[in-house]
Amino acid sequence: MKETQNRMRRTVPNGLPHPAARAGLTAPAPIVPRAQEPVRPAARIIPARVVIRPARPDDLEQATLLERRIGGTMAATLNELQRRLFALPEAFLLAELQRPAMPQQIVGMANGLIWTRDYPRSLSEFEKLLPSSSHNPRGDVLYVASLGVDPLWRGRGIALSILRETAEVARRRHLKCLRLIGHARTQSLLARAGFQTVRPLTGAFRQHRDRMPHPVLMELPLF
What's the helix, strand, coil split of the chain in %, to 5? Predict the structure, then answer.
């Protein structure tokens, strides 16, 4: 009886004994088809480019938000950025991210004013005077008051592109050099762009050492 039951278990679909059963062997286990893994869509690559262009008045709100992300407590206000744009519009440059079917996004910027080479004369002038209030069209130096890139877009050469375009603005105005304040975290980048250290600003920006450690005045000769 038990042998009959075993033979009944080892049958093929048409009811006949499985060949292995006829040979006295154990029938192979039925093959269970594997469940197919879900097909994952390929990652969509969105082409993008960054364009350096002059700012417009309607860019200032977004530029102010970027200034705050970059500068924190040292960020210029909306009113100060408006005055800089009015004073020297061609030196207020934006790095704009452009992607098809997506809103354009400002990911970097620079703005500057014209100073004389002997200005500022003291550390307190660097810290207390608004750059827009010291703009002097008769000067020979383009002072870069703000330079920065959105933290999510750093390391892609955007800052260097902005600086190159800023230098071209200064050359068209026949200015002798660019100047800006660098610090321990930006000196290597500025050196790659051709900037040289003029002098350390020891004692300046003590309340902002988290943002500006070891500040130095740096210069890029143009002629």
Answer: 35, 25, 40
Instruction: Say if 13 falls within a structural domain.
Output: no
The single-letter code of the amino acid at 113 is L
Distance between CA atoms of residues 43 and 29, nearest Å: 40
Outline where 1-142 has alpha helix (H): 2-9, 19-22, 60-71, 78-87, 123-128
Considering the entire predicted model, what is its pTM? 0.77
Number of domains in the chain: 1
Dist CA 203 CA 214 (whole Å):
9
Q: What token pair was written down for 206?
A: 């003590």
CA distances to 29, 45, 55, 144 from 111, rounded to whole Å, are: 76, 33, 9, 6
CATH number at residue 182: 3.40.630.30
Distance CA 124, CA 59 (A): 31
Average pLDDT, the chain: 85
CA angle centred on 48, ends 42 and 50, rounded to 5°:
155
